[in-house]
Design goal:
Oligomer: heterodimer
Structural class of chain A: mainly alpha
Radius of gyration of chain A: 23 Å
Number of domains of chain B: 1
Order of helices and strands of chain A: HHHHHHHHH
Helix content of chain A: over 70%
Radius of gyration of chain B: 18 Å
Strand content of chain B: under 5%
Low-confidence stretches of chain B: none
Strand content of chain A: under 5%
Low-confidence stretches of chain A: 183-191
């Protein structure tokens, strides 16, 4: 019972935050609300017993990505984006409504949360749950699946993280070169 | 933000518990929630907090970017290296069971090493990306 109440409260706050994000024009405030949104998602994962996901969401979504977005904002220095003139909301609104309706229709086929008969629970999950401790001695099945049964996937993920890092460093890494072009760019920003 | 006394005092008392918690998540990941990815992110969050409050130069004194670049590759190397070692020991790639005498001990050792590699890479990558963004804003 208390779970349902917490879920409804968190989802209501998520919706309120989303509406607030849409209505605000100050990018700094929007970034802070993104952080709050992530943090509440983490709380929601927590209630759903997905503690590992909640960890990641709280640390990456609410923490580091907020810092990175603020750093990007500090670089671009344009806090109040003006709405373009002649902005007509009807077509985007219609697209969003249709997409949203399709997604809600899609959820009707999804098995209920925690349903033991769901395809995800009947495929390889029982094998992992039954054999994990005997085969790997690791009580946390999430860890044994990630690191052992699905070791190749996790290796791929680590390589993806590493590749992303290389890409970011190639694009914006290193010290800023003190060239003439750079001075001109800075002058443009000041005026 | 370097002159804000309250932030400095609070973060000085917060950073050590965050680091301890990150290490706990890293090495207790096989018993409780967490693992390499979460631990790396939490550890880098501790250092990002330090960099935000005490400045980028102070943070780079703690851990220079050249070291971080080395660590980012080292983590991937540890992970992939465990796989190569298991092949040399007669198993398949990433078949941890051959790492130690019994299957369970081998799996345990392999998972520990692999999670360590994940943690090191994620920690270094998150900090490197943060430094890349923050360095740009430094005039």
């Amino acid at each position: 019972m208390i779970d349902v109440f917490i879920n409804i409260t968190l989802l209501a706050f998520l919706a309120i935050t989303a509406v607030a994000i849409v209505r605000l024009t100050n990018i700094f405030a929007i970034i802070m609300l993104f952080g709050i949104f992530s943090f509440m998602s983490a709380a929601l994962f927590m209630v759903m017993d997905a503690v590992d996901v909640a960890f990641t969401e709280a640390a990456v979504g609410a923490g580091i990505s907020t810092v990175l977005m603020i750093a990007t904002l500090a670089l671009t220095k344009n806090q109040n984006e003006k709405q373009p003139a002649g902005h007509r909301p009807w077509l985007p609104l219609a697209v969003v409504m249709v997409t949203g309706a399709a997604m809600v229709y899609g959820t009707l086929d999804i098995p209920a949360f925690g349903d033991p008969e769901a395809p995800a629970q009947t495929h390889v999950a029982p094998y992992y749950l039954e054999r994990s401790v005997a085969e790997t001695g690791v009580p946390n099945v999430v860890t044994s699946v990630l690191a052992s049964y699905r070791g190749f996937d996790t290796l791929g993920e680590v390589v993806v993280v590493f590749t992303a890092c290389i890409a970011v460093l190639l694009l914006i890494g290193g010290k800023r070169p003190k060239t003439k072009l750079d001075d001109r760019g800075r002058k443009d920003n000041d005026t | 933000m370097t002159h804000n006394l309250i932030l400095r005092v609070i973060s000085k008392s917060l950073i050590p518990p965050i680091i301890i918690f990150a290490l706990y998540v890293q090495f207790h990941g096989d018993f409780g929630p967490g693992g390499g990815f979460q631990a790396g992110v939490i550890l880098s969050a501790a250092l990002i907090l330090y960099a935000l409050v005490f400045g980028l130069d102070a943070a780079e004194k703690v851990i220079p970017q050249t070291v971080l670049r080395f660590l980012a590759s080292l983590g991937v190397l540890i992970y992939a290296g465990v796989g190569v070692v298991t092949m040399f020991l007669g198993g398949n790639y990433l078949e941890y069971s051959v790492l130690a005498g019994t299957q369970v001990a081998g799996q345990h050792l392999g998972i520990l090493l692999v999670e360590l590699g994940v943690g090191i890479t994620v920690f270094a990558v998150m900090l490197l990306i943060f430094f890349a963004f923050a360095d740009r804003g430094r005039s």
